[in-house]
Amino acid sequence: MTDNAPDKAPHPEPHQGPATTPDFARDAAAVHEATERLLVSVGKLDDEAVGEPSLLPDWTRGHVLAHVARNADALVNLLTWARTDVPTPMYPSGAARDADIERDADRPLSVHVADLRASAQRFDAAAAALPADRWTFEVEMRNGVVERAARLALRRLAEVELHHVDLGVGYTVEQLPAGFVDGWLDFMTGVKFAGHPAVPAMELRADDGRRWRTGTEAAGGAVTVVTGPPTALVGWLTGRTRGAGLDTQGGALPAVPPL
């Protein structure tokens, strides 16, 4: 449902892009903390639980764990590229990425845990080795997406936090740290979906008074207003929830493309 009526009470001006500049050092530290929380959750599983379905279609928990580990190494490749100026792709190919996940999915829990920890340590070391004067360097991610090195730590943080949710072990979007939620809302609205042809013009209103504009402006200026807690907004935008806790003044939530 669109809403072009004047507000009954004043709101802050909506963000037209990311409200915060990427903070690589802060995000890299958050990655380490999020990984430790993930390892605590994974350590409570057993071999049988690793083979059970995750919350992602067609993936077991083992697939999710294998992906998280290989993604760490893939981002190490990009951090190395940014540091050395030697092109280093995330993965040799899409097929190789998928094959590695399938190869590693059925491993025992102890092997998954060791791999997660070792790959996380490699990411931490690569992040620490990236000089601040290289944070503006641009690298190419999967599918041709160009990204600044300064945002690679936030990208990794999303992988760890969201896939922790995907494991289906009791960690939910409501438990996502506020720092991640704020940073990812800025990224999704100001970068990922800003001007996206498949995303209608939207104004997201957090229940703490903040607002974000995103999507493609429609003729006539029609804008769909979505209101709710920041965690609920992130859960919906990332496809981790169906929009529970969000309000569109009686209308249906707009469809947003998958990450």
Task: Explain what this protein looks like in three dimensions.
This protein is mainly α. Helix content is 46%, strand content 8%. It has eight helices and five strands, in the order αααααββααβββα. Strands 4-3-5 form a three-stranded mixed sheet, with helices on one face. Strands 1-2 form a two-stranded antiparallel ribbon. The chain is globular. The two termini are 24 Å apart.
Judged by helices, strands and strand pairing, the structural class is mainly alpha
User: Rough shape?
Assistant: globular
Low-confidence stretches: 1-19
Q: Quote the distance from N terminus to C terminus.
A: 24 Å
- For the biggest β-sheet, the strand order reads 4-3-5
Computed Rg: 19 Å
Number of strands: 5
So how many helices?
8
What letter string, H or E per element, gives the SSE order? Answer: HHHHHEEHHEEEH
Largest sheet: 3 strands, mixed
